[in-house]
Specification:
This protein has 353 residues and is of the alpha+beta class. It folds into two domains: 89 residues, no CATH class; 236 residues, Bira Bifunctional Protein, Domain 2 (BirA Bifunctional Protein, domain 2), CATH 3.30.930. It is 39% helix and 17% strand. A hairpin with a 5-residue loop joins strand 6 and strand 7. Helix 5 crosses helix 10. It is rod-shaped. The structure holds adenosine-5'-[phenylalaninyl-phosphate]. Adenosine-5'-[phenylalaninyl-phosphate] binds next to strand 5, strand 7, strand 9, strand 10 and helix 10.
Length: 353
């Protein structure tokens, strides 16, 4: 019986050597060690053996069972390792890619210089009791023009080249457009509150203009409005001065000259002496030495009426700061187009980590 068991073991080893499939190996194991397997069948005749024979056959049978189990498990483990290695070989990870500078670039993101200045201005005005408002980019001509005392055929509509939306009925009364200025938020702000109130409203505006060192088609303004009883030009000048002092943290030369905007009367243009060329003349100031920065004025009575405010009782001031130009003056940026370039070498200069 011992020799029969050894023969079986030889047979098993030969068969196992030929197999490489896990299921087939498990079948082979069952064919030898299963209840009706070959080894079990041989052991059934153990009952006919003498006690001496049993002493010999018992340990031999256990040894062969153990060997079969071990060989099966070893072979299965080897197949698994081979499969993993084959997969790794196929989906090789090229670790040399991590030697690339770009991948090892763990710089932090940072705020855009315009956001930094905008946040500073918001803090200054919040500390003076102003709210910060927002408004939609897509507007109707009511908010962009009509409510601001610019009726349909008013020549002032041509002061700001407008991107209009084509409408199914293009003659429709309230056509849609991309807002050309943040003054739209004056109207929305007035309609939503009762005087006295004061707010600022930063935002992106759109004009169909040729770009140059100080003009973009998509740029940013920051609107301001204060309405109450007995608001004067003195208040307007005080807030303009405070804004410039807080942002520049140094004396800057400004000039105030009359300016025409249908929504203010009187209206002013506040220009800053160009800080790129120190007033000598450059492409930013169009060789005039001055940059138009902060148009402003006393709110026109028609605008107050459009905002449901009684102009007999209340008055106010409004301003429309050119935010990108302020950023240029503050940081000495000689071309507005750098601001929207998305160039990290530019943006990184404004953040300290
Ligand atoms: C206006 O847009 C008025 N809504 C401002 C205003 C508000 C006046 C309230 C009175 C009361 P203006 O078109 O001048 O005005 O634009 C305001 C500022 O935006 C300019 O002084 C300038 O600093 C900036 N600006 C105008 N056009 C551009 C442009 N294409 N690119 C960059 N900045 C511009």
């Amino acid at each position: 019986m011992v020799s029969k068991l050894e023969e079986l073991y030889q047979e098993f080893s030969k068969s196992l050597a030929e197999l490489n499939d896990q299921a087939e190996i498990l079948n082979l194991k069952a064919a030898f060690l299963g209840k009706k397997g070959k080894v079990s069948e041989v052991l059934k005749s153990l009952k006919d053996a003498t006690p001496e024979e049993r002493k010999e056959i018992g340990p031999k049978a256990n040894e062969i069972k153990d060997n079969i189990l071990k060989n099966v498990n070893d072979k299965l483990a080897k197949i698994e390792v081979d499969q993993i290695n084959a997969k790794l070989e196929k989906n090789k990870i090229d670790t040399s890619v991590f030697e690339d500078d770009y991948v090892n670039d763990f710089r932090h993101g940072g705020l855009h210089p315009r956001t930094l200045i905008q946040q500073e201005i918001e803090d200054v005005f919040l500390s003076m009791g102003f709210e910060v408002l927002d408004g939609p980019h897509i507007e109707t001509e009511f908010y962009n023009f009509e409510a601001l005392n610019i009726p349909a055929d008013h020549p002032a509509r041509d002061m700001q080249d407008t991107f209009w939306f084509t409408h199914p009925q293009s003659e429709e009364e309230n056509k849609h457009l991309l807002r050309t200025h943040t003054s739209t938020i004056q109207v929305r702000g007035m309609l939503e509150r009762k005087p006295p109130f004061r707010f600022i409203a930063p935002g992106t505006v759109f004009r169909c203009e040729r770009t140059d060192a100080s003009h973009e088609m998509v740029f940013n303004q920051l609107e301001g409005m204060m309405v109450g009883e007995d608001i004067s030009i003195g208040h307007l000048i005080y807030f303009m001065k405070t804004l410039l002092k807080e942002i520049f943290k140094k004396d800057v030369t400004v000039r105030l000259r009359p300016g025409f905007f249908p929504f203010v009367e009187p209206g002013f243009e506040l220009d800053i002496s160009c800080l790129i060329c120190n007033g000598k003349g450059c492409s930013v100031c169009k060789h005039t030495g001055w940059v138009e920065l902060l148009p402003c004025g006393m709110v026109h009575p028609n605008v107050l009426k459009a905002g449901n405010i009684d102009p007999e009782k209340y008055n106010g001031f409004a301003f429309g700061l050119g935010l990108d130009r302020l950023v240029m003056m503050k940081y000495g940026i000689d071309d507005i187009r750098h601001l929207n370039s998305g160039d990290l070498r530019f943006n990184e200069q404004f953040n300290k980590y």
